[in-house]
Amino acid sequence: MARRRSKKQEKAIDELLSYLTIGIGVYIYYLTNSISTSVLITSLLFICLIAFMFIKKSIRNERLRQSGINEIDKMDGVAFEKYLKELFVKMGYSVKLTSVTGDYGADLILEKNNKKIVVQAKRYSKSVGIKAVQEVKSAMSHYKAREAWVVSNSFYTQAAINLAKSNNVRLIDRKELIEQSLAIKNASKNK
């Protein structure tokens, strides 16, 4: 899957387009030596640029709405685990929820093609740290799993990302969760 641009990168691109539009206006003035022509064309370009940014933002907001991420953000931890269970079932996994307490570091156990995966679910408003990675990694041996995942509606600290890499733990962050939710919803619409 291709990496998405960060908000900072998106803002930089939007600023670059704005400066480019102004530059085109100056260039048109240089070519025509007419202020009214350059102002008219620059104004039209700005209107097109603003319309483009508005449409882009509207599409992004619609994707977020369709993904259900706003509802996920309002869930408690148990509801989030149940949501993930339904999501993974729709993805073809057989899913077992572990007990709320004494789960040995895994909230869900997935199985598909004779491969067992332990999942730590983190419904957070802040970045998820290394504790989740440590817990799910220890759950692998307890549940005799071949893979370990941490799934969150948020993002991960750099320390968690580094630890996950060195321990072969898959991190599913907010962006990937949105993509998976949309893919499942689109697949069910097409049936």
TrEMBL record:
Q: Which UniProt keywords apply?
A: Membrane, Transmembrane, Transmembrane helix
List where the protein spans the membrane: 12-30, 36-55
Residues of the Restriction endonuclease type IV Mrr domain: 72-179
GO BP of this protein: DNA restriction-modification system
Q: Listed GO molecular functions?
A: DNA binding; restriction endodeoxyribonuclease activity
**Protein name per the record:** Restriction endonuclease type IV Mrr domain-containing protein
Tell me what organism the protein belongs to: Gottfriedia solisilvae
